Amino acid sequence: VKNRLGISIRLIEAHITAVNADSMLTKNLKVENGSALLLIKEIIISNEGEKIGFSENYFCPGKLDFRVNRT
Questions:
Q1: Which tens digits make up the pLDDT trace of 8-64?
Q2: CB neighbours of 2 closer than 8 A, spacing ≥ 6?
Q3: In angstroms, rounded to a whole number, what is the distance separating the alpha carbons of residues 60 and 31?
Q4: How far apart are CA 48 and CA 10, in angstroms?
Q5: What is the pTM of this model?
Q6: 35 and which of 3, 31, 43, 61 could share a cystine (Cβ 3.0–4.6 Å)?
Q7: Separation of CA 19 from chain center
Q8: Residue 21 burial by CB count (10 A; 0-12/13-18/19+): exposed, middle or buried?
Q9: Which distant-in-sequence residues (6+ apart) come within 8 Å of 33 by Cβ?
Q10: Beta-carbon neighbour count of residue 51 at 10 Å?
């Protein structure tokens, strides 16, 4: 798989954990302070083993359908 820059991607590491909304997340996601959220942090790794991307995304329960395909 290649990204938009033509760099071949070997894998994407995803770490998923539960967190509670702080004041910043409360404001941005329009949830109550302390609300349960899912946090997904991803690191994109090239075929050469270089870390070429990172994302951090928060999801409200019930708003995410997460599936894992194993081969």
A1: 889 999 999 999 999 999 999 999 999 999 999 999 999 999 999 999 999 988 778
A2: 8, 9
A3: 9
A4: 8
A5: 0.77
A6: 31
A7: 13
A8: buried
A9: 21, 22, 23, 26
A10: 10
